[in-house]
Amino acid sequence: MILFIRILLAGTFLCLCGCSDGVLHAAQSAQDTNDSSSAIIDSATETESTPPTDVSTETETQTDPDTATDSDPTLYQIMGEAEAFFESISTNSHQWVLINDQYDGSVVPDADTDHLADAGGGAYLEALPDNHTSDADTAGSSTVNPTNAPQVRYNISVPAPGRYYVWVRAYTSGGLDNSLHVGIDSDWPESGIALQFPNTSGTWVWSSNQRNSGGIVYGIPNTIYLDIETAGAHSFIIAMREDGAEIDRWILSNDLEFRPE
Ligand SMILES: [Ca+2]
Ligand SMILES: [Ca+2]
Ligand SMILES: [Ca+2]
User: What is the domain range of residue 45?
Assistant: First the structure.
């Protein structure tokens, strides 16, 4: 049986956790997460923002406790909408822009139209301006180091420590808009660097592929992951790697067999 857990992220939140002891675990303040992330915020940002009031800041966790054994731990998926961040950190050149039916198109250049038709929650984020649109264009932006890139941060409650494979749903509009970085709290492990999406146009796709993994430029699944050492409150972070990247949803899963639909 699948249990659904809802984590309320505004202020103090309640974690209703289908953990192995069968007890509902409650009340872990997001304050610790905010404190632990302050250093990287200070070093990386020029401006900060919080979500608009009409955007939900909720994530969900699905568990499947029926599958758990001593050697096969409970499988979890922690998921959220990209637009449901608790903090967005811009640089002096780029920002994660909320795209929804209210967006006025004011952040330019951005050569393509919106992709709201199949976006979850009717919204997504795009790293803009999209300066880098051709290999001949040297004025664009691609950030090898995530600490120098615009970031969005999400409060999550991790049910159990372990390795979580990171899946992100992105719109791929070309080979210069199709990669990200992910991190946890104030850390950017090598396994979160260069989450790569296929160089195809016109569709939302899920990927957990690290660039160049498996000897393939576009990588192989489950090569982007985060090793989370403690249960409880953490910050999941997405950073721009290439401008023009569009992100709709994300999932962290400790299940190697999991594939988002
Ligand atoms: Ca675009
Ligand atoms: Ca670009
Ligand atoms: Ca969305």
Answer: 3-253
- The rounded distance, in Å, linking the Cα atoms of 152 and 144 is 17
Exposure of 108 by Cβ count < 10 A (0-12 exposed, 13-18 middle, 19+ buried)? exposed
Q: How far is the CA of 110 from the centre of ligand 1 (A)?
A: 5
Q: Which of 242, 72, 222, 232 is nearest to 170 (CA)?
A: 242
How many separate domains does the chain show?
1
Residue 258 within a domain: no
Tens of pLDDT, residues 116-147: 999 999 999 999 999 988 766 555 567 888 99
Distance 60 CA to ligand 2 centre (A): 31
pLDDT per residue over 160-217, tens digit each? Answer: 999 999 999 999 888 889 999 999 999 999 999 999 999 877 889 999 999 999 999 9
In a domain, 186, yes or no: yes
Ligand with the closest atom to the CA of 137: 2
Largest pairwise CA distance in the chain: 58
Q: 62 CA to middle of ligand 1, Å?
A: 32
Quick check: is 192 in a domain? yes
- Give the side-chain half-sphere CA count within 13 A for 43: 10
Measured in angstroms, how far is the CA atom of residue 72 from the centroid of ligand 3?
32
**pLDDT for 221 beyond 70:** yes
Return the closest-CA partner of residue 177 out of 204, 155, 156. Answer: 204
CATH code of residue 244: 2.60.120.260
Entry pTM: 0.77
Q: Both tokens of residue 56?
A: 């939900």
Considering every ligand atom shown, identify the ligand nearest to the alpha carbon of residue 126 and give its number.
1
Instruction: For residue 48, name the pLDDT band (cuts at 50, 70, 90).
Output: low
